[in-house]
Amino acid sequence: MDPGEHFLIISAGDSIHKTYPALLLELCSVTHTIVFAEKEVYTNSARDDARKRMWKCDIRNAVDEVNAIAVSRNISCSLVTIDGAAFDAIRDPVLGIFSDHPEARYSFDISAGPKRLSLGLFSMALWVEGDCYYAFGNSPPRRVPVPTLPMKFLPANPHNLVILAILFRGQVHGRKNTLLIPEETLFSETRAWQIPVQSPDGDPAGHELSFENFSSILAHLISGNLVRHESDPAHEGGKLYSITPDGELALIVYSARIKKRGVTPAPGLT
């Protein structure tokens, strides 16, 4: 079992061959592709009218094209057919894959297929800690924003909110590229709020933010996909930080919650 394995699980539809290459650009580490389809798609019935036969044929052709693309890129590709779209029928094969490859990364494309199938795969993505993507029409694939940390995590330490607010305010709306803030700048602006550092039991420890505390807080925000970082080309060993779409959404949800309750906003939020 290779921890570097990356499974992309797709709900079958007649346009998956169009979104698949775009997903591979977004998810460049994919090693296995698995297409989930209802058995009905691969079953011919005398009761099918011309439109339904064409619908089934289009999906089969799309699956074949996905397989051809995968093979051309040395990506393993397989098909899983399920009886109907009951949750158990979706759950069991996903869990079978997961039990054989528990250390792998999992991504799901839920753009196509019946709603029951897409919702079932979305639910399983949460259980195996996978990320979900969708694309509608000709739009590029987008990651479905799902919180990886409970909302109570943010206010548990006010520095979480301050860091996110600083990064959020550092953005320039309408620009394609997000503004990156150097590590030292982010640390200085965060420490300027003079919020007492909390002890492990949640009580204020009574001392100002150290760089070690700051780095630990950032590590939690990065692990929760609320903040991203990259190397600073201008300074060897330096880092640049920016807020992720999930981080923006977390701030917006938290802000809406405190306004509804009439709570005083946390530092850095208005």
Describe, in plain words, how this protein is organized in 3D.
A six-stranded mixed sheet has the order 3-2-1-4-5-6, with helices on both faces. The N and C termini lie far apart (49 Å). It is built from nine helices and nine strands.
Topology record:
Elements: E1 6-11, H1 16-26, E2 32-38, H2 50-72, E3 76-82, H3 87-100, E4 105-109, H4 115-127, E5 131-134, E6 142-143, H5 153-156, H6 158-169, E7 181-182, H7 183-191, H8 211-223, E8 227-231, E9 239-243, H9 245-261
Parallel strand pairs: 1-2, 1-4, 2-3, 4-5
Antiparallel strand pairs: 5-6, 7-9, 8-9
Helix pairs in contact: 1-2, 3-4
Q: Quick gist of this model?
A:
Helices cover 43% and strands 16% of the residues. The strands form 2 sheets. Strands 3-2-1-4-5-6 form a 6-stranded mixed beta sheet, sandwiched between helices.
Quick tags:
9 helices; 2 domains; 9 strands; 6-stranded mixed beta sheet; 270 residues; alpha/beta; Arc Repressor Mutant, subunit A; 3-stranded antiparallel beta sheet; Rossmann fold; elongated
